[in-house]
Amino acid sequence: MQVLRFIHTADLHLDSPFKGLNKLPEKLLYRLQESTFRSFERIIEEAVKREMDFVIISGDLYDGEDRSIKAQARMKRQLEKLAERRIPVFIIHGNHDHMGGRWTKLEMPENVHIFHTEPEVKSIETNNGSVVHVYGFSYAERHIYDRKIDRFKKENQGGFHIGLLHGHCEGSPSTHQPYAPFTVNELLAKEFDYWALGHIHQHAVLSEDPYIIYPGNIQGRHRKEKGGKGCIEVNLCKDHTSIQFIETADIIWEESVVSAAGITEFNELFTLLTAELVRFRKTDQGVILGIQLVETEALSAEAIDKIHSGELLEILQDDEDPEQNFVWINSIDIEAKTFSNAGVFDTGFMDELKAAFEGFERHHLEESTKDLYHHMFARRYLHDLEEEEEKAVIEKAQQLILQHLQK
């Protein structure tokens, strides 16, 4: 019985700038910026250790179209390790690292096949004598909305057939751009043995017969990309296929909801959150942890003030070493109060306040903060806010107002 053993990975985003995280300590920010490289190195180590037949990378190897020399050089060094073991690599480029960008090009090793901008097939015979036909295409430009899937044509009837596709599955809840759209039924109709997808940063299995899989990205880059990240080991045969998720991320993003029910004093709260550090600490990975406190009604004014001032956060961060298996609490938020549970206030006033928040737009935030950005000293430490950061600032302002009203 012929079996193919390979690793499927995607969305490496090597050399990601990790925008919006400038306030992290320098050593932690450096480790975060290195994390995409470290995760990819672990994937290569696993491919060598497990003696894979080949490796598939389904798009977005680099974070931008102007891929840096640094990222290319480090990519090349890792692929050379596979070349030394005669392990082929199949690569497609996605919307982030499309072929239409401008960059200084470094040639990849001879074991690497990079697909052109129209769907094509590359056939090889593995070391165990299995024949595999691999299909794919690279993005010619950043925005591809046409149905490239229509141009995938199964060639030959023997061997295994594997499709590489960086795109959006129609009908899925993903918020990613709907590039190179397809449906699961369209993929099934091609009668391939495996579909190696990319583009969606959350691991997802769309079908098991045959397997159609998004491996997710290899390293979370912000709080919304939480949980384990890595690659997929595939053991593919005609009768039965098995998969295994291999976690490789150097840093994990996590969130925890912590009940403060019955807690009044600051010291009790500090002890409670110290236990969260122990609970989330891992053996050989760092963790960036966001905490939401709920059931905080009994907390003293002093404890609440220590949260809002950042003092509690600071002492919990104090002994963490960014070069080790740290747990870095990045935020402590008190359970969001809404206008419906904000307490007993004059209804007309609350309606006006709610309307003010709903009508608050980006230009209002810019107007409110312009003096700070023009200040001769403060502006040195500020950066332009990303859309997600702007939303977070507005939400935080709403919570502070509601909390002060309840006091």
Automatic annotation (TrEMBL):
Cytoplasm found in the keyword field: no
Domain Calcineurin-like phosphoesterase as annotated: residue spans: 4-202
Alphabetical UniProt keywords: Exonuclease, Hydrolase, Nuclease
Highest taxon of source: Bacteria
Keyword Hydrolase: yes
A GO MF term: exonuclease activity
InterPro entries: Calcineurin-like_PHP (IPR004843), DNA_Repair-Maintenance_Comp (IPR050535), Metallo-depent_PP-like (IPR029052), Mre11_N (IPR041796), Pesterase_YhaO (IPR014576)
Family matches, as PANTHER family: COMPONENT OF ATP-DEPENDENT DSDNA EXONUCLEASE, PHOSPHOESTERASE
Record's protein name: DNA repair exonuclease
Natural source organism: Falsibacillus albus
Organism taxonomic ancestry: Bacteria, Bacillati, Bacillota, Bacilli, Bacillales
